[in-house]
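DM from R.C. (forwarded with permission)

"hey, sorry to bug you on a friday — could you get me a structure for this? deadline for the figure draft is monday and I only need the backbone to look sensible"
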Amino acid sequence: MTGREAGSAGVSRRSVLATAAAAVGAVSGCAKRTRNVMARDPASQVSLRILTVPVDANPYPARIAQALAANLRACGVDAGVEPTGPEALYRRVLLDHDFDLYVGQFPRTDWRDPDHLYALAHSVYAGEPGWQNPFGYTNLQLDDALETQRTTSGAERKTAVAAVQERLAESQPFTTLAVPDALSAVRTDRFGNWRGSPMDPLTLLGLSPTGEATTLRLGTTDGRITGNRNPITAEFRTRGTFVDLLYDSLGRRVDGVLRPWLAADWRISERDGQLQALLSLREDLTWHDGEPLTADDVAFTYEFLADTSLGAAESPIPASRYRGRTSLVADVSVVDETTVRVAFADSSPVVAERAFTVPLLPEHVWAEQTETARVAGVETNRTMTEALAWNNPQPVGSGPLQFERAVPSESLRLSRFDDHFLRDDPEDLPERLTGAPAYEELRLSAVGSDDAAVELVAAGDADATVAPVGAAVVPRIGRESALDLVSRPSRAFYHLGFNTRTAPLSNTRFRRIVARLFARSRIVESVFDGYAQPAETPLVGTGWEVPERTLDDVGPGDTFVGEGGELDTEAARAAFVEAGYRYDDGDLLSE
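My reply, with the result:
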């Protein structure tokens, strides 16, 4: 094989808009408006449904949604909350675009680099499934700023990133609300060296036993990994802890710096007017099934993520997860068994390197998953391949841990992969690692509540919780002398997402008023019990955020319509009237 093309498929804005328009009738919250339009009666009450997960799955978004619905009803909107299970919610929002509004948490990502906003908000992705622009939003000024930050560096990039945040504040395709603290319960009687959150794979890999413990035991309230281990499905992978333990990438970000991982090194330079990288793999790499991991697998991964049908479908069917990062790659050529040449799309070197953080997939496993597929019992408007529908029951990766067995919704067992490169304790390891994992097995137990997860740790049946627990159990952790509370700022912000494909959410002025129905400081105190940070920009805490006063000048910022967290109903209704809406007997009418 001499080369593989892995560029992202082009999508015209006209076709994007046509695709979005075809789906309008399927949006449940818009059904009332659709019927009225067909009856030529535009004077109907605005009706909106807010999707979120049930309270028992995650109380935070549910409470935010309930508070917003109450404020919308006070403004004359027929608003309600529609609790939906996590997989179904993500399928409706990310795959089918079947929603009015939703409250959710952006998945953990390469969050410190602002280029992650490129896929989230660029209009070229408005018709694609996944976390890339699920809002269906189109704004040429925002596109220009996103493209500029992707291709520049230094002060010029900083200016472009500021412009991205200002355009988002102006137009509100989504409203950033808060960044929660990631809370975990940990005990240190069996393992020490907890140098970060248990949700950080490097923390788990760097643990050292305090005695003769050979099994690391973890508790979680998110049991999806026990039933689905597909690393590229958008609706199942909102956290990457176990994917990162099972699947290696070429590079891994450590303390904010991207460093070679499976790659021994890479050199980026310009060649024939195009940014390229010559990348060498470490020696003697193997997959968990014993097959050699070679440059062919690297080239295959980028080709496959760009089109999981490998050219068999009428048009490419990309893997929506990692879409922004794979769009940085234009072509991958195999030089020899351990060397590849990567040609990048138009980007700066610091942004281009983000492409090296996707999980590598074995060609001999995933090349067989290219046929189109339907999921039994699941209705979706999207064409999928087996690769996107498959639950990957026996994952074959190259990570430091390998799959042993699982019981859906109950447990997962992984074992140390003794042929991993960490066994040789290479000199270029991150400081917090000392070689291969010090334990032989990792056992994960899935439970139904935060209380149950903390009880596992308190009873000595687990060493840590590995999904964020809510603030309500913090006192419980504090009362247990054997437990430590580990708190780290989350990499995932809570937000309100708008489906901008349909009225009235297609109206920027309407969205800006809805964004002002939130008092962020009240949300932090009443919803998160103070274990969160109010956020007006998705880049809060990254060092790239612009001052709040700048956002206040161009968008709603934190200018809540009210005082002390209490909505000023009269002022909010006046804002809707000023935006061109009218009331009939207290009901807000559509335009």
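R.C.: lifesaver. The chain has 21 helices and 27 strands.
me: no worries. Residues 4-40 have pLDDT under 50 and may be disordered.
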